[in-house]
Amino acid sequence: MSDQVNGDIGVGLSLTATNQEKQISRLLICDPVCVFPYGHNVAAMENFRHFVGKYYDQVVSLGCNRLPQDTAARYGIEPAFEYYYNDAMPLPKGDLDSTILRTHAQKAAAAKRDLVQLLERFGVGPADTLCYPSIDFYSLLALVEAVDELRAAGSPKILIRLIGVMETASSGQYAKPLNVALALINRLCDAGLSVRLAAETPRYAEYLAAQLDRPVAVAANIELRPQVPVLQNDHVTVICPGSARYDKGFLQLVDLFSQVRQRDPEMRIRFRTQVLPDRDLKHQIDYLIRLYAIPGVTVLPSHLPADELATMYENADLVLLPYAHDVYQFRGSAVLIEAMLSGRHCLALDGPAFVDQIRYFGGGTVCSSIADMADKVVEFSKEPPAKRQARARQARDRFVRDLAASYRDWVI
Amino acid sequence: MKKALFVDHMFHKKTRSADFFVDILRTGFAVETYYLSPEDQPDVGVLAAAGAADVVILWQMDFLAPVFLSLGKPVIVIPMFDGSGGMPDIHWLFAHKARFFNFSLALNERIRMAGGTSMLLRYFPEAVEEDKLPRFDALHAFFWQRRPDHGVDFKLVDTLLGDELDSLHVHNVADIPGNYTPQPRPDARYRYTHSTWFKDKADYARCLGRANVFIAPRVAEGIGMALLEAMAQGKLVLAHGAPTNSEYISNWLNGILFNKDSPGPIAIRDRAAQMAKLGWRTVVEGRKQWLASHPAILEWIYGAEPGPVIEMDHAAFFKDLWHSYYASLDEYVSFLTRKLALLTQLSELPFDRVLDVIGEAQPAPIAVQSTVRDCDLDTGGLLDLTREDDRFVGKGWSNAEPEWRWAVGYRSELYFSGLDVVRGRVKARFTASSLPNLGKAVQCTILLNEQIVHEGKITPGWSDYRFVFDAGLLRDENHLILCFDKATTLPTDSRMLSVCFKRFEFSAA
Question: Where would one find the signal peptide in this protein (chain B) (predicted)?
Fold first, then answer.
């Protein structure tokens, strides 16, 4: 059913210019934060294209105009947005770029301008859907500011997914930006537009539903990767994938790994972890050295290509998520979903929202403390691989079925 | 087979300490080794030797990279932490087009963050068979007193282990002239022996072989061969906590790191065998990875590309560089700074990047048109964290309590404006207490507008702490980031707590 544009801008334009008359159902995936060649945003574009795009005749992926051209071409992502978030997630050399948007007012104006241009450029009509895989603050603001233009375009359907990250990135303009984001969503709904809401985690969905007094679907991170067999090794490989950050427990790792090593002096258990991005790592070199010196620990760069990340899961037995419960109180974890799809068990500290998914799907074990996590790493290392494989398969199958159903409910 | 010119320090001709690496090179290259002696005049013959080579490999003599790069040769540089750990950015910039191998993580990160292209290596020697591991019924230590002038001396060893050892052998042959004869205490509980020379290597090995405790003789190492050999033999290793010692030893897991500047007695008897065994196992496992890395080492060298040949008097440049390097660090940096035109040719970096390095460029402040927050300091430069309106508070804080506010997690942020100090220095004082459950102290690092302005420990109980910074760091709106090395939850409180604060006060110094 899906007839994807595949990044050919010329084809996309010719198909879209007359869409108000043709009434072709079309999905426009919008993500102004799709700007780095690594990370989850580009992958999310691709996943949404396949997973949500199947309900539409055509798909157009729209990212930031500062996304490297080769990445944009490879994934068929068309430039459509200025970059509004250099303060939160700086571009390389972004601080030296005089054209980068700095103030709240500049960003708000640019976001509205981008949206209006997008509506005109693609001839958006009532059969179209604007889909935000992880809505950001200035896109929300732009939608509200452009209500008249959206109505004039025939009130296209708007799919908004909140993941608890960029919807509050308001450049420090507001001490309570989530309140503003919620108010903007209410305003959008009250304007009579067809808005369908989803949140990444059940906990966040419940919170938003209560705050907004509107239904909020649950739409977890989309993952399509196949389950990979558990390796039959003499040793057990434990990984901490993804760019390690303070709020992802980087500063807990020395304590955790040391405790495991004391319980496992035979070094059956091995650790592989990515480290902090350079902007933080330069202040933590001594800590990095302590981590590196622990026998059986391999440190990996902060950013790894997607294929190396995939290999990391394939060669792993167990995935650790010692995330901060306050920062992640509503957030999901892409690493958790990747691990579940790959068929790898997770250990997580209690508190984050994604822990509810771990419990529900049986994709991992929840730990009360770092000491408890160390105990559970050792316990896990003694389980037979076949048992691990079966448990992981069950969690994965349940998750995949649930994912398909929840997206269908949100989109249709 | 391609030809590699291996340029090394004359001292290593005697110690053969680079042989293990040259042996790997010989599996992929026809290797010619050329030794250079710092005591001698610069030997321009090395330039002719390089002319016949496909690639030049510099062992330690990293400062020579621009000489061979300017000849249009692919250059591989293998610097050592003990020799080059403190070199400035401009030193690494002149080698920008080279490829690096680093045996030290700290140096690897230093060079990588300075823009270099580096591959991290971790050497491990062959370990003895498990049944040859020493017993730990008694503790017999061996210490070669090589650099007593650096503070790793007999007195230090006696302070650390004097109450634990059954015997101590000191090989008293210092690398520097002077009389450093140990003076054992009359009441020492251990049997003391010493040597000043060995007839041959076997004698030395026999003496070393009788020990099961080894004290690393130098403050810092390039690789740490002696330490690694001792670990490989199953000895308990103690070393000063600096790279590369600290990169192989995880404190009290597979060895012990001490601080030579504040030593105190330590009890090792109960855990010595366990730590030594894990040290040995570290080498066993590390050795496998080291051997597995050999093909990647060759690939890394094959992948090095030549830069453009620079038209100049290479011999004159080589001599000038040589003399300035061995004169002093200041003279060397001054020499490099005078060669910026060459640097831009060699590195192919834009000139503004070169200027960034020379001038230690600061991140450009974001030009906000107006203060986006209402975060003016109160009268007297007071940043009161107990204000209920959260005026100064960013991420990572609890709600204000009547007399304090907790930092939540490992990182907390503050904002302030309105500090009217234009030039000179600014004094800052803050009142804080760490969570007693976190032990004696919490390490706190404070960044102001992305520059570190304070690093220190915060202890339990209210205390005042001070730091000073340059007024030039201030912006219209200022961003303080506070990082902590510890945080924990309490049975009665699920928040991750680390340090609580009352206030910051700022004033002109």
Answer: none
Q: Give yes or no: residues A127 and A245 share one domain.
A: no
Q: How far is A194 from chain B (nearest CA, A)?
A: 34
Of A219, A247, A265, which residue is a domain's last?
A219
Q: B48-64: per-residue pLDDT in tens?
A: 999 999 999 999 999 99
Q: Can you tell me the distance from the alpha carbon of A149 to that of A91, in angstroms, rounded to the nearest whole number?
A: 31
Same domain membership, residue A23 and residue A162: yes
Does A8 have pLDDT greater than 60?
no
Residues of B in CB contact (< 8 Å) with A are: 105-106, 109, 113, 243, 246-251, 253-254, 274, 277-278, 281-282, 285, 363-364, 366-370, 372-373, 390, 394, 408-411, 415, 445, 447, 452, 483, 485-486, 489, 494-496
pLDDT of A136 over the 90 cut: yes
Retrieve residue B345's tokens: 């040719």
Q: Is residue B453 one of the residues assigned to a domain?
A: yes
Q: Which residues of A touch B118 (CB under 8 A)?
A: none
Domain housing B461: 382-508
Chain A residues in contact with B246 by the CB 8 A cut-off are 289-290, 293
Question: Do A142 and A244 fall into the same domain?
Answer: no
How many Å from the N-terminal Cα to the C-terminal Cα in chain B?
Answer: 66
Share of chain A above pLDDT 90, in %: 72
Asked whether residue A212 falls in the same domain as residue A73, the answer is yes
- Please check whether residues B328 and B409 belong to one and the same domain: no
CATH number at residue A168: 3.40.50
Structural domain range at position A203:
9-219
Nearest to B293, CA basis, from B128, B119, B129: B119
CA distance B111 to B149: 29
Chain B residues closer than 8 Å to A260 by CB: none
Which among B260, B285, B310 is the end of a domain?
B285
- ipTM of the complex in this document: 0.76
Q: Between B272-292 and B225-232, two packed helices, what is the crossing angle to 10 degrees?
A: 110
Closest Cβ–Cβ partner in B243, B253, B452 for A289: B243
Residue B121 — very low, low, confident or very high, per pLDDT cuts 50/70/90? very high
All residues of chain B having their beta carbon less than 8 Å from the beta carbon of residue A295 are 250, 253-254, 278, 281-282, 285
Residue spans of beta strands (DSSP E) within B241-361? 256-258
The encoded tokens of residue B122 equal 């971790």
- Chain mean pLDDT for chain B: 91
Q: Is A326 in Cβ contact with B411 (below 8 Å)?
A: no
Model confidence at B198, pLDDT cuts 50, 70, 90, reads confident
